[in-house]
Every structure is written in structure tokens, then in C-alpha cells.
């Protein structure tokens, strides 16, 4: 089983400690939400655990191999990584962008092998993008773009998925749609780690919440155990009432 | 998908036709049947001489130089994710011609005929490597273009210095040839010296082209889908440096064709940098062959230099592309 295990990772850039002694794991079948305020070190933790950034301490393994030593192509076959969405350089078609998800399988745009073309079709279908397949990406709305990037990640058909704020700047309906897609992926046996800023949504979808504050993981467990008013005050500096997965925010502390 | 299957074969056929036309036209017009006879062994020695020693090598040189600049431009645009990247604009051609002029100036070329192409390639590689390092440190496209402009100006200044110190009018006119860019009087010998580097560079760019498609997503997401960023940068810089250096060794600095050809090609290949490489090479080669026919047939007292004509046509298009960009982005 492909499992991502980070052990006491630290990331220090110049004088700033971005991540300190962080340990966590991600296995297939899990839906994990990574929570924490801006600047808590979520993205740095993800990058270090994937081996995209050299940790200053600790290590991370993916399916038993050190991620820092993995060839990019081998890493991409084990975990699909969706960084925060950035504008694309060229106005490609949606199908071409989704097909880039097959890069680690050797796919070259314009001459996909049958196996790659099928994976792309499945991903387009799953994300309800079939009718957009030949559209240029610069004609899509924010919600459609977010779905396209999800499709790109699903097309890789990797056992794990890490997505950094896939619902940023989306309206509530599209946030639900994206999280439903990821939940389906998990239901089919994938393991997902998703950075989210909507705590209620995170608690509703995730089987586990990882809470970060100032570079450290301060809690890791199911929503029922880790989502408390005291935690929200400690991590986000907000006053709130919590009942189940319902959060009623009153304002900053 | 708007995938044009006729594009590559069509451009290849048009290029072959243009090269044939370049053999037809000239100060002594030869009819097509005499050209064909000369090309395939028949005909009288005078015709053969004109075709094989003068017109064909010149047309082939124009095509190869254009192809090298077209494929380098398309690859650099993919790497830097910027439609304005091109060996000429980024100062790569200027650095290559500076290095070539330098080797001429100090008489290094008398040591071996390979010195000149190698000097040009070293100049091109140095400039491309500097740009790639700058590209790692800044994500700003504007900064990168400005560095290229600076590099271009600096190479130009050093070139002026060499011209200033030139010992005799003969070496001065030699240097001017390098600065302006021309394929006049090229022989198969000179093509043979540049060709290995040109082929090696273009092949490297084609083999690693797939990574340029991934870079469409941005560097972070490209490494997310499995691209080795470091290798991609090294290969593209090396390939573009080799191809551009070889083209400068053959014809001096010829600007803008590396921008215009990919710009025209992109809509026909779904804006995919990898798929734009071969058609861009063919179209850029075609453009230079046609421009060189123009240079030869326009009656002027001094023959126009190919590089001058390319810049006269290309610079306004460059400005137009830059203005389009501003309207769409930021």
C-alpha cells in the first residue's frame, strides 16, 4: 500500500522556521483536511513531505522510499499534487490540460496512447467536463477551472492526492462540488490530503483534521475529537461555538 | 480539437518549393528545367556551378538558420512561458556573434575551421545559461526580457569596442557582416561546420519537448505532474544554445524570426509548446528563404543584409505581439 509518512520534518529558510518537527501520515482511504491560518506552514509542510523542498530536519517516505530521492516521475505516479491554482501560460484546450495529468505515464499531448486517452476521458467524465473538453481554458469560469485541475489530478490515477486550497475563491456550490469529487476519489480507494480554509466543510468531509499553527502540528485526529472551541481560539484566534461539525463564529479574540 | 494535420507536411512542401524557387531566381535567371537538370547531375558545368556553389547553399543556409532560430524561439517561449522570448530579443544571438567576432578579431579562426562555430556556440550558451539562472530567481517576465535587452546592449557595446579598435577596414567589414546577419556567399563547407551543432541542438529540443507542455501549468504544478525542472532547464538551454550558436556561426545575428514563426503556429497546434517546435522550425526556415529571395531580387546598390530585412519586418510584429499581450493579461 502506498503511504506517505512524514517524520519530524523541519523546514528552515534563512532565519525563519516554516515547519518544526511535524509528523503525519496519509494512507489510501483517508480524507484528511490540513487546517491552519495563513502562514502556518501548510504549503511548506506539503512541499517538504513530497521532496519538492529539502527539509532541514526529519524525513518523509512515500511507499517506503525517501521522497527527496524519488525521481519526479516516480513520485508523480504515487501522488498527484495540485498546488494552489495559478494562471496557465497558454490558452490550451481543457482536454490537453487534463492530459498533462498523464505526464508521469509518458503521455505526449496530441498523440496520447489509448490507455492515457481513456484515463483522460474518465477524469473528464467524473468532473462533468465532457462538454468543455475542446474549450480553451481562457474561456472557463473559476469553478470550471477548479474542476479541470481536479480532473488533471484524477487523470494521473495515483493512489494518493494532495491538493493545496482546491476550493479557494469558489462559491459555496462549487466548493461542495469539488469536495464531492475528492470524496468520490477517496470512496474508490484513494487517499487525499486537502488544505482548506472552511472549517465546517473540512469537518463535514474529512475523516481526520490536521491542525497547524506557526509551523507546528498542534492536533491530528477525527473532527469529533479535534474540533473544539478552544482549538479554534488557539489556532485561528477566533471565538466560536462548536456543536458537532457546526461552527458558529462570533469574531476575533 | 483544432489540430491541423496538414500543417507540418504543408510547411515542409512549401519550404522545398521556396528553396527550389531560390535556385531559379537571381542575376542570371535559369528556367526550371535547367535547374532540375543541374540539381540532378545533367546540364552544363556553368549551370551546375551557379546552382551547387552559389544558389543552393545560400538557400539551404537561409533555411537552416531560420529553422534553428524557429525551434529555439519556440522552445525558449515554452521554457520561459512567454511569447516574447527569442534568441534575438534575449541577447543570445548578440552574445554568439560577439564571441564569433572576438575569435575573428584575434585570428583564432586560423587555428581550425571549427573555432568559429564553437566560439559562437559558447557565446550563445553563456547567454542562455545566464537567462536560465535569472529565470530561476525571478518569476517576472518583464525582468527577464530586460535582462535580455541588457545582455544584447552589452554585447553590442563590446562589439562596437572591437570595431572601434579594428586594425583595418577589412576586419571592420567582416564584423559588420556578423552584426547585420547574412547568408550571402555561403558554401557547403560552412554549412557542414555548423550543421552538426544545429542538428544536435534541435534534436535535444525535440526530444525534451514534452516537458515544455507540462510547464504550461507553471513550475510548481509541472513538477507536481512529474517534470524534472532542473533537467528540463538544462536541456532546453543547451539545445537552444547549440542551435542558435550554430545559426549565428552560419549567418551572424538574425532577429525576430524566432518570435514570429511560433506566434503564427501556436493557434494551429492548440497552443502546445511541444507541438509547435517542428512547424515553427519549418515556418521560420521558409520565412528566411523567402526573405533572402527578396534580398537578392530587390535592386539596390549595395545588397541588403538578410538580418536587416528580418529586423525591419520583425520588430514591428514584435511590438504588436507585446501590445496584444498587454491587452489580454495583467
Number of helices of chain A: 9
Contiguous runs where pLDDT drops below 50 for at least 5 residues of chain A: none
The largest β sheet of chain A comes out as: 6 strands, mixed
Report the count of strand segments of chain B: 0
What does the main sheet of chain B amount to? none
Radius of gyration of chain B: 20 Å
Q: Rg of chain A from C-alpha positions?
A: 18 Å
Number-wise, the strands of chain A total 12
Order of helices and strands of chain B: HHHHHHHHHHHHHH
- Overall pLDDT confidence of chain B: 87
Question: Approximately how much helix is present in the residues of chain B?
Answer: over 70%
Distance between the termini of chain A: 43 Å
Overall 3D geometry of chain A? globular
Helix/strand/pairing category of chain B: mainly alpha
Tally of individual helices of chain B: 14
Strand content of chain B: under 5%
Low-confidence stretches of chain B: none
* Portion in helices of chain A: 25-40%
Largest interface: A-B, 34 and 28 residues
> What's the end-to-end separation of chain B, in Å?
28 Å
> From the structure provided, what is the oligomeric state, counting identical versus distinct chains?
heterodimer
Describe the structure.
The complex is a heterodimer of chains A (253) and B (330). Helices cover 33% and strands 29% of the residues of chain A. Chain A contains nine helices and twelve strands. Chain A has helices spanning 42-50, 72-78, 94-99, 114-126, 142-155, 172-187, 199-205, 223-226, 229-236; strands spanning 4-13, 16-26, 31-35, 57-62, 65-66, 79-82, 160-164, 191-195, 208-213, 216-221, 238-243, 246-252. In chain A, 49% of the residues are buried. Chain A is an alpha/beta fold. The radius of gyration of chain A is 18 Å and the shape is globular. Chain B starts with 6 loop residues before the first helix and ends with a helix. Chain B is mostly helical and 330 residues long. Chain B has helices at 7-24, 32-39, 45-80, 92-105, 115-137, 141-164, 169-180, 188-207, 209-214, 219-224, 229-251, 257-265, 273-297, 306-328. The longest helix of chain B is centred in the N-terminal third of the chain and has 36 residues, at 45-80. The interface between A and B is medium-sized, with 34 and 28 residues.
